[in-house]
Each structure stands twice: as structure tokens, then as C-alpha cells.
Amino acid sequence: DRSRALNEVFQESIKWVREGLVDAIVPMAYVDGARDFENLARPYADSAIRDRVWIGVYAEPRRNKALKEQIEQAIEYKFGGVAAFAYGNLFDNHKPNSMARKVYEGFTGK
Fold this sequence. Notes:
- The protein is an alpha+beta fold.
- The protein has six helices and four strands.
- Helix 3 (34-41) packs parallel to helix 4 (67-77) and helix 4 packs parallel to helix 6 (98-108).
- The termini are far apart.
- The model has no long low-confidence stretch (mean pLDDT 87).
């Protein structure tokens, strides 16, 4: 959450990306729920920066039952990308599992 990032570890990621101090930011919106995700993601959807925002989603179905809705929200906000956490949830023996395919399908429609 942006308030915690600013107050506890002095991160001003939106300011940094606006001012060109960093190329991109990857805010971790690891929540279970579409509304909580939207509240975390909305500040990063500003058209001036959203193409340099790769929003983080937690791709683990037992802990994030709103993953599909979160992917849809990320697409609607037109973020530059999405970081799906964690590799181990998406790949078995370095091969995409069913969750990886669902995440892929969510973004590509294929």
C-alpha cells in the first residue's frame, strides 16, 4: 500500500516514475479481492504513467480467488504489464501449469 511504502520505507514510486528517476515500477497488489485490488491499483492507472506500471498479482488460486477479476481490471487500466507472483505457482518443472495457462488466457483471450 502506497501510504505504508511512503511512511515506513520512504518509497515515492509514482513520483519517481513521473520524474523519470526509474524506468518502471512494479507495485505489489497481492490481495484476495477485486475491490481491494482496485483500491491498490487505481492510483497507478494515471494515463501519464500507466504504461510504465507492471502491477503485481498473486497467482495462487487458494489465496486469491479474485485473480480473474484482477486481470480484467489490469487490462482495463491499460497497465504496461502484469507481474504474476510467484513462478512456483505457475510452473511445474519449468513447464506452464493450468494456472499459468489461465493467466495467459486472461490476458490474451486465447
